[in-house]
Amino acid sequence: xxxxxxxLEEKLRSILTEDLGKGDVTTMLLIPADSTAEAEVIARxxxxxxxxxxxxxxxxxxxxxxxxxxxDGEEVKTGKVLMKISGKxxxxxxxxRTILNILSRMSGVATATRKLVNKLKRRKLKTRxxxxxxxxxxxxxxxxxxxxxxxxxxxxLCLDDMILIKDNHIAVVGSVEKAVKTAREKxxxxxxxxxxxxxxxxxxxxxxxxxxxxxxxxxxxxxxEKAVKTLKKSGxxxxxxxxxxxxxxxxxxxxxxxTGVDVVSLGEITHSVKALNxxxxxxxxx
Length: 286
Prior knowledge:
Strands 6-11-10-9-8-7 form a 6-stranded parallel beta sheet. The chain is of the alpha/beta class. The two termini are about 40 Å apart. About 45% of the residues lie in helices and about 20% in strands. The mean pLDDT is about 95. The protein folds into 2 domains: about 5-115 and about 275-285, Quinolinate phosphoribosyl transferase, N-terminal domain (Aldehyde Oxidoreductase, domain 3), CATH 3.90.1170.20; about 120-270, TIM Barrel (Alpha-Beta Barrel). It is elongated and about 75 Å long. The longest helix is centred in the middle third of the chain and has 34 residues, at about 90-120.
C-alpha cells in the first residue's frame, strides 16, 4: 500500500494533533527549549514489526532524525532496537506516544495476522486470511496496511473498492438474485461483485445471478461444506470465489479454512488486536 508522503504526513499529523491538544505542558515546564536528545525505540516482546515507515515519516516531518534498524514485516525478538531518533528533546517527548501507538498497534495487527497465515501454511492450505472493515475509526489505512505486512489480505479497502451486497441491501431490494443482477447490469466492468448469503439455498442463486464472490455469512463449517457440495454438483465451484466470514477466530480458523472456501475473513485481527509492547527510551541528552 502506498500514499504520497505529504498525504501520509497529514494523516499522521492529525493523530498527533489530537494527542497534543493545546501543547505538551509537562514537557514545556520541565525541558529547556534548546535541549537535544537521542532515543531508542525498543521491542519489549517478540513479534512482526509494522509501522516503521509511518514512524519515520511522522518523526522526520517534525524535524527529527531517524535511523531505522528494522524493516516492516521483519520478525524481531524481545529487546531488539527498532530505530534511533535524535533531535529536539521537547519534540521527541511530545511525539513519543503517537509514534509508539502507531508502531505498537500496527505491529500487533501484523503479528496476529502472520500467526494465522502460518497456521494455515503448516496445514498446506491455500486459503487466504483476510481482515474486514471492523477497524478503529480513523485507522483504516494503517490497520489494513498492517494486515498486508503480516501476510494477510486487506479485503476491500473502502466502500468504493468493490460491490459488496449485504443483508440490508437485500432486505431493501427484495432478493439475492435481484440485487446481484441489478448490480451486474449497472456496475463498471472493473468492479467485482460480492454478495453475502445467510442460507445454503441462496448460494446457488447467487452464483447463477452472476456474483464473482459469495460470502457465506455466519455459516457453520458443516453448512459451508454443504454449500461447496451444491456448487460442485451444479458446476459453479471454482468459477466463483467463496469467502467464509462470521464467528471465525484464531482457535477455529483451521476448521473453516479446511472446508473448501477460498478466503476466511475475521474481524478480530483488527478490532480486538493486542498491541505489541514497544517503548521509547532516552539514551542521551545535551
